[in-house]
Task: inverse folding
């Protein structure tokens, strides 16, 4: 009887401690969102990795460089992308909101390799022997194939749009200049940068 009472007491104490720990853990959750971009051009980095260090969770940025996932206060977040230097950040424990947005700028990480010359033979002497022993194979010419134009008859210059081709004229004179000349507002500059 005494053993059962002690056992129930231990289970009760452990349940209460688990519930209070779990309830206090809910206050530490933060929705971290933002954009990962290149430092020099401020262009978004597509499919960059955003992960919590030493845990198996994180996110991948979208094609526009956007990410969003839940983190705890004091989590260490690593931002990385191929060809760029990784950045580590610790989520501050002084944040009062449960949602924050940040702009992360990664610098290029360029490595120059030494020049390597690749030879098809192990030694120069073997290359010379193979080169001198080479016999040219007779080349066969293929005659004209029905339905296929010869290269000298193919016109590679597109015809200029005219009033008789209204779709081409509309595209070249109206739509294409709008697409090429429109300046999209960079949302990256509006977000605070973590340093």
Result:
């Amino acid at each position: 009887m005494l053993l059962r009472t002690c056992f129930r007491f231990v289970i009760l104490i452990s349940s209460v401690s688990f519930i209070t720990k779990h309830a206090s853990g809910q206050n530490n959750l933060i929705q971290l969102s933002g954009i990962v971009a290149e430092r020099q051009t401020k262009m978004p980095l597509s499919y960059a990795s955003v992960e919590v260090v030493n845990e198996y969770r994180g996110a991948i940025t979208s094609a526009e460089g956007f990410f969003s996932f839940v983190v705890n206060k004091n989590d260490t977040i690593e931002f990385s992308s191929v060809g760029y230097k990784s950045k580590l950040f610790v989520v501050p424990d002084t944040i009062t909101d449960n949602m924050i947005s940040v702009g992360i700028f990664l610098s290029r990480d360029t490595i120059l390799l030494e020049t390597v010359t690749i030879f098809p033979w192990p030694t120069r002497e073997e290359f010379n022997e193979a080169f001198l022993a080479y016999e040219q194979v007779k080349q066969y010419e293929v005659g004209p194939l029905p339905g296929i134009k010869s290269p000298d008859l193919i016109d590679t210059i597109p015809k200029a749009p005219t009033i008789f081709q209204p779709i081409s004229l509309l595209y070249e004179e109206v739509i294409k200049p709008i697409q090429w000349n429109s300046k999209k507002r960079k949302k990256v500059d509006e977000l605070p940068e973590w340093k």
